[in-house]
Predict the 3D structure of the following.
Amino acid sequence: MNRVAIITGSGRGIGAAIALQLARSGMQIVINDLDKESAEKTAGEIKKNGGKSLVSLHDVSQHQAAQELAEKVMKDFGQIDVLVNNAGILRDAMLHKMSEEHWDAVIRVNLKGVFNVGQACAKKMMEKNYGRIVNISSVAWKGNVGQSNYSAAKAGVLGLTSTWALELAKYQITVNAIAPGFIDTEMTQKVPEKIREYALNRIPLKRMGKPQEIADLVDFLTSDKASYISGQCIHVDGALTTGIGF
């Protein structure tokens, strides 16, 4: 499979798992992350397994940087077939304590960043009449205490997903979203034990998800097997958001 995939925020965690999985499926990978060390570590893993990758340190929250990323990939690989919008940050606080700076930062990275890279890559995909876009949202789009900024951004990502699926369908570009629940990453490992226990007790499957489980779904959605799936949001959360929660 001679396809080229860009995965934003792929230096570690879910993004790295996605990059490694798509590389195993034969794609050439663009690892985008602001952390050079982690990005190069992921690139090293891909190379070790016989894959080809490119490290990008472009700040996707900046519109011009996203355009430059797309142009760089076109110059080096000649095509963009897959985009996974995974980059995101957290700046949690209760509504009455949240600063304007933290609100703006999360919206800029988690929502505007998706728009920036999505727009830049969609233009290239439209020229080829083919593409796969997967936007990583979160179960927090439904709302979560202390996450006004994050929840708003992740809900916005679903709005972008639906709109792009409609706009880009005539170019044979599918656009879907994944809403992960409580996934075992470096970030969630730093959560205090009491909060981790509380979260696990709320999950019907009684365990955290694995980054690989998100990566496997991305692998499917970006394959030809999913060519008739578009405009969907798939929750990967152990049934956390299913039912009324009693």
About this structure: The first helix runs from residue 13 to 24. The first strand starts at residue 4 and ends at 8.
